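Box 3.1 — From sequence to structure: Fe-S cluster assembly protein SufD
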Amino acid sequence: MTTETTIAPPSTKSQVLRSFDVAEFPALNGLEEEWRFTPLKRLRELVRATALTGTAPQVEHGDLPAGVSVRSVEKVDPVLTPFDRVSALAFGSAAGVTLIEVAPETEPEQAVVIRLVGKGGEAAAGRTFVKVGAFAKVTLVLEQTGTTTLADNIEVLVGDSAQLTFVTVADWDADAVQAQHVKIRIGKDARAVHVQVALGGDLVRQFTSVEYTGRGGDAELWGLYFADAGQHFEHRQLVDHSVPDCRSYVGYRGALQGVSAQTVWVGDVLIRAAATGTDTYEINRNLILTDGAVAHSVPNLEIETGEIVGAGHASATGRFDEEQLFYLMARGIPEGEARKLVVRGFFAELLNKIPVEELRERLGTAIEARLAESAS
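Predicted structure (token representation):
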């Protein structure tokens, strides 16, 4: 007599498959919980390829402050073990690693700006590793522009008592496709603030995961996205609290306008049994500006211990507030300008998280220009 063994799907985020081998992940069909919102055909070769041979975006930067270096290396010990097929594909196909290193106790006065510029061509893989030494304090901006079909991983290691503000901007050309995993590992008494901005590209799917290695770790994940007609922006987070006395806060805001504009936000927070003293909260808000736009918002919270400081989540999706618009217009402000004010106010908290004035203003101008185009 023969018996069949059935493998049950994971009942918790801690049980999902993790592997560097793309062959260990089944082919994607769109029915998987992690991919059900993603239009797989628009991911092009990233869905079924077993290797990517295109040229990754070009790394550009200006003068670097003392204690900060950017170089290409063959390999570096990973902090991310992929738990989806595309991330594993990126690991197996990336030709080397872009290593951004901040020496211990370094505190540059100005933000460090790195650019990844896509030059088109065949689908490519990339890997970026950010290493911030103990007691360092730095703001790092990673701007992603040009055109590409890209699977990439960004790994961030924040040393003990270090402070990192990491701003990533996806402002790709209209035909670009990206599937990215950002992994942040936070040391004892360290603090990481990640501000993730998505404005450009045909399809951009970004997964951010966080883990802690010592008590006192603090993570803030902020996101700003504005999807226009036909664009698909997808943001997922997994904050894995496995160490006592750590904190996390997740706050993402998105605006949508135009037919078939679609956004997805899925926030997962896992508090393991050992993570006593955890304090966590996550919230997502979406502003729908026109008919035909669709926003999906799914907050999830998994708690394995009751000995925590606090845990909560919230989600809200709504249409443009006509009362606010009327209030402004009644005071002599033209409708177009009033709409800009309301949307800029919606994003103000997120923009103010970016400690680079020039970038804040540039992003605010880009948002207003997009609104002006829709009104013309």
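Summary of the box: The first strand starts at residue 58 and ends at 61.
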